[in-house]
Amino acid sequence: MGMDKRTIKIIVAVVSVVLVLGIILGVLLAIFLPYRYVELEVWPRSEEYNHYEPLIHFRAGDPGSWHVWYKRINEFLRDYETTVPEEPPRAPCSIHRHDQRLPVPSCERALNMWAPCNADNFYGYAAGKPCVFLRLNHIHYWVPEPYNVSKPMEIPPEMPNNIKQFMQQRPAHHYGDYVWVSCNGEFQSDEENVGPIQYIPANLPPGFPTNRLTTADRIPYSARNLPDQIHGPLVAVFFENPRRGVVINVECRIWTRDIIYRSSSRVGHARFELYIQ
């Protein structure tokens, strides 16, 4: 038996009300909840850190000048300390110098893989060749759409060649996807001053493996409003020979199909300044 016209009208009215209430709720949430976005974090940070002019300033020959950055990196990396072997290690061992701590097999491998960006080398600051660590934050609501050569999609022409090469050498259907990352001098003068850059661990692609990111598709829906529960993997940026005595503006960004790069936005990219004396 079919429904009469009155029943159909009631059902349509109820559905309409539900849809309207859903729209209103969405608008209210957008107004009253803080806007969240995936953030590329830069470490170490100063106590007065801000996202627009973060400055890393030290004198290479003065331990009292760079030790504060060494200490802050150690504190940042403390959350990554583990006696459980990880492959590959998500971070270098950090809390103590290698000759001052109890031997831990997993730590030995992490030190080797992350050299020179480890505590034994003072993260390069003593030599005026600093390491800066990058990490993704606010990924608990995000499902990235990576670039790879396994899917028919256009690769941005401005993407760095080293990333394109890794895509060819390590296709995603065999090695997994990456949220790619690149860093460079922000302006032409900075490009001339920043010198060669290495991404550490050097034998891995420059980016964050998606299988180690706790993104929204891997957590319960109820947990998506909570802060990131698991610290994601790191990428260290090693500045081999930055020019001394000048401020160098550095910009780092991630590469995914769903994030549109805008220099005026903080979404998916970060900037900082290096001033080494």
Automatic annotation (TrEMBL):
Q: Answer whether the UniProt record assigns the keyword Metal-binding to this protein.
A: no
Q: Where is the chain membrane-spanning?
A: 12-35
Compartments annotated for it: namely:
Membrane
Q: Name one GO molecular function term.
A: ATPase activator activity
Arranged from A to Z, the UniProt key words for this protein are: Membrane, Signal-anchor, Transmembrane, Transmembrane helix
Pfam families listed in its UniProt record: Na_K-ATPase (PF00287)
Membrane-topology descriptor? Single-pass type II membrane protein
* Gene Ontology CC annotation, any one: sodium:potassium-exchanging ATPase complex
Query: What PANTHER family is this protein classified in?
Result: NA_K-ATPASE BETA SUBUNIT ISOFORM 4-RELATED (PTHR11523:SF28), SODIUM/POTASSIUM-DEPENDENT ATPASE BETA SUBUNIT (PTHR11523)
The UniProt entry's sequence similarity note says: Belongs to the X(+)/potassium ATPases subunit beta family.
Q: What is the recorded name of this protein?
A: Sodium/potassium-transporting ATPase subunit beta-2
Question: What species is given as this protein's source?
Answer: Pieris brassicae
Taxonomic lineage: Eukaryota, Metazoa, Ecdysozoa, Arthropoda, Hexapoda
